[in-house]
Amino acid sequence: MSGLNLNNVTKQFGTFTAVNDVSLSVPDGTFVCLLGPSGCGKTTLMRMIAGLDLPTHGSINLAGHDITEVPTHKRELGMVFQSLALFPHLTVGENIAYSLRIRGVGKEEQKKRVDELLAMIHLPGFADRSVSKLSGGQRQRVAIARALAISPKLFLLDEPLSALDAKLREAMQVELRQLQQRLGITTIVVTHDQREAMTMADTVVVMNGGEIRQAAPPVEIYRRPADSFVADFIGQTNLIPFSVDGAGRATVLGEAVEGLSVSQGAKGMLSVRPEDVQLTAPGHGAITGTVSFVRDLGGAIETFVEAGGQQIVAVSSPRNRPEVTVGQSVGIRLDPETSVVLAK
Ligand code: ATP
């Protein structure tokens, strides 16, 4: 079996379970982001993939070999971890060539590889520069080049961009994704930043409480969240309770709504993205509410509506600005196509 495979991996610290029975297949050449709130177990899972921690149960396979107990330095990994800072007393070139030198690669070959890698990270001619003279973004690029010097089987990055300011972080996300696509290297990134995950990943793995809640392409995670945790964690959403009576009639916020694909007697939550909430004249929508606040963000208008004791947010583009004022009564129409039914 090729790629990386995690089979029922569990990690316990004493009686506390940090990672609980996680199974995941990462095909060769794909980019996976482990995403979740603080303490959900993503770093612990990454440390086991890196060989820095041993699973309590389960196994890890890489390219068809069981590597569960193989030490880190024999796994042929490229790692960019926060704890692995650049060596301050070495130049950029010496930092990048470090793992080549300890593997006994010749001087000429080292230089050739360093030049190749510097070109790849858009820092040609930087080999003799002191790392203390680099900006934060340049430093992170050098750390990436250093990790890629040995052409690793697997590229692991733990919060690689979190120390950078927002603008640079966004630019580096695109750069990192393009680099990964060019090299076709299997890559796993830990992040708590959903935008970062959505920008870079083929597969976003959403974790909570040590478990995988959903592993899917970014658009599917956004459009078809598996449960209310994922729906709420990824982007903004309206979680609206619904119930269905014995005759199959659905009630949402006290009003009958038609067209939802729900089964008789069901109870749960609808996840409706703000851009999918349609505001209409009262009486024309299925639910009636009162506008409580309008926020004009320039690129988008957010309209907050109180309905059935709950606040619902609708987002529109400035071109489709709803003609509403605070205190006005409006209708809310839910589109069955974009209302995701979640079990409670
Ligand atoms: P963050 O985004 O804050 O880094 P995370 O999702 O990476 O969080 P982990 O670092 O994997 O979370 O930690 C998961 C849980 O395991 C946390 O509750 C943490 O306190 C606990 N934990 C991690 N390492 C140890 C350890 N060595 N001993 C005991 N508990 C640990």
Entry summary:
The chain is an alpha+beta fold and 344 residues long. Helix content is 24%, strand content 33%.
Approximately how much beta-strand content do the residues carry? 25-35%
- What can be said about the biggest beta sheet? 6 strands, mixed
How many domains comprise the coordinates?
Answer: 2
The CATH fourth-level homologous superfamily of the largest domain = P-loop containing nucleotide triphosphate hydrolases
Cofactors, ions, other ligands: adenosine-5'-triphosphate
Strand order of the largest sheet: 6-7-8-3-9-10
The average pLDDT is 91
CATH class designation of the largest domain:
Alpha Beta
Along the chain, the helix and strand elements come as EEEHEEEHHHEHEHEEHHEEEEEEEEEE
User: CATH topology of the largest domain, what is it called?
Assistant: Rossmann fold
Q: Could you tell me the number of beta strands?
A: 20
Helix content: 10-25%
Classification by helices and strands: alpha+beta
Gross geometry = elongated
Tally of helical segments: 8
Radius of gyration: 25 Å
Low-confidence stretches: none
**Architecture (CATH level 2) name of the largest domain:** 3-Layer(aba) Sandwich
Cα distance spanning the termini = 37 Å
